Amino acid sequence: MARDAFHNAVKVALQKEGWIITADPLQIKFGKLDLYIDLGAEQVIGAEQNGQKIAIEIKSFLGQSAVTEFHRAIGQFISYRDVLRVVEPERVLYLAVPQLIYDDFFKVQELAQLVVQTNQIKIMVYNPVLETIVQWIN
User: Fold this and answer.
1) Which member of 13, 18, 37, 120 lies 3.0 to 4.6 Å from 55 by CB, making a disulfide possible if both were Cys?
2) Rounded to the nearest 5°, which phi and psi values hold at 14?
């Protein structure tokens, strides 16, 4: 299983914001399949409260076609999200997207805007150089 080019940058960015990485990767069993989401993380909200649980599917969009990369990422995201709703409904899935791709593709392409809105894709925008999270989009 190959890791995304920006896997470690996203992991560090999450840790900088106080997330505890609980799985790297997060293995999900569904039927006869073993699925692997890039990261599982939790954030404690107070000493005795239940924290928030998330899963992050990291994408770099380093291929030759942003549209092809987008199609692949969205299909994978929807599959993982649907499985998580069954096996770990408390965990929220985010698609991690580099800031440059978010600004130059997701924000300006009508196709991306339509698909993200229609499918309620949650996005975490990250800066791979600074290893920071720029924005959470719900």
Assistant:
1) 37
2) -65, -45
What's the pLDDT tens digit per position in 55-82?
999 999 998 899 999 999 999 999 999 9
Evaluated on CA atoms 90, 1, 24, 60, the torsion sign reads negative
Q: Identify the bridge partners of residue 39 per DSSP, sorted by sequence position.
A: 56
Instruction: List the alpha helices (DSSP H) in the chain.
Output: 7-16, 66-87, 99-101, 110-118
The span from the CA of 93 to the CA of 86, in Å, is: 13
Show the tokens assigned to 125. 């925008």
CB 37 within 8 A of CB 4: no
pTM listed for this prediction:
0.93
Helix (H, G, I), strand (E, B) or coil at 120: coil
Distance between CA 136 and CA 120 in Å, rounded? Answer: 13
